[in-house]
Amino acid sequence: MSLAASPLRVTKGQREQLEAWSRSRVVPHRQVLRARIVLMAADGVANQVIAERLGTSRPSVLKWRARFEDAGMDGLEEAEGRGPKPTYGQDFVEQVIATALRPPADGSTHWSTRSLAKQVGLATPRCIGSCKTPASGPISPGPSSTGAIRSWRRRSRTSWACIGTRPRAPSC
Fold first, then answer.
1. Segment holding 66, helix H or strand E
2. For residue 112, how many C-alpha atoms fall within 13 Å in the half-sphere facing its CB?
3. What pTM does this model have?
4. DSSP string of 103-160?
5. How far apart, in whole angstroms, are the C-alpha atoms of residue 119 and residue 127?
6. Which of 148, 139, 128 is closest to 88 using CA atoms?
7. Taken in order 31, 35, 36, 38, is the CA torsion positive or negative?
8. Which of 13, 49, 56 shows the shortest CA–CA distance to 34?
9. Higher local confidence (pLDDT), 118 or 138
10. Which of 167, 158, 123, 159 is nearest to 148 (CA)?
11. In the predicted model, what is the mean pLDDT of the chain?
12. ∠80-155-70 over CA atoms, to 5°?
């Protein structure tokens, strides 16, 4: 049988927050798991037992236990640098969105993927047409355009991946 490590010190406020996360149906599962790990560690349960009960590995239990000891509740958040790196910078993404929210100069009512790609300097319009704002569907100029940029900023980083894949080669 595994020996229990010393119980984690958890304040009353932290315990309440962790218990809320562990019962939540809207918090991501990984955060629920981390909350349960910390709660069981605070109760003095052995690391191996925690891993077996929660269906995870002992190194994972040790990792989240150490992160909580070092940084408290902030240590349970996702670390920076996870996931694919963005293809384009924030300035370029905002330029594409701002351009898409203005009416095209040729007098048409909507941007085509090709015309938008050409306007912002993309070699291929690969998936500009699939970019959507949360409420309004495909990007198009209109009365609700003013709030669309704010909506886009709130979306996850993965949404920016749909801007395109290659910048156009400089013309000589």
1. helix 58-71
2. 7
3. 0.51
4. PPTTS-SS--HHHHHHHHTBS--TTGGG-EETTTEE---STTHHHHHHHHHHS-GGGG
5. 15
6. 128
7. positive
8. 56
9. 118
10. 159
11. 74
12. 25
| Res 4: pLDDT | 64
Highest mean pLDDT among 4-8, 60-64, 127-131 belongs to 60-64
- DSSP string over 22-63: HH-SSS-HHHHHHHHHHHHHHTT--HHHHHHHHT--HHHHHH
Q: How many CB atoms lie within 10 A of CB 44?
A: 11
**pLDDT beyond 80 at 25:** yes
Tokens of 79: 């670390």
The whole-number average pLDDT for the span 89-95 is 82
Confidence tier at 133 by pLDDT (50, 70, 90): very low
* Paired tokens of 17: 């927050």
Burial of 71 (0-12, 13-18, 19+ CB in 10 A): exposed
- Under 8 Å between Cβ of 123 and 114: no
Angle at 30 between CA 34 and CA 16, to 5 degrees: 45
Strand (E) or helix (H) holding 70:
helix 58-71
Range 1-37 burial, b when 16+ CB lie within 10 A, else e: eeeebeebebeeebeeebeebbeeeeeeeebbbbbbb
CA distance linking residue 163 with residue 130, whole number of Å:
9
Residue 86: pLDDT over 60: yes
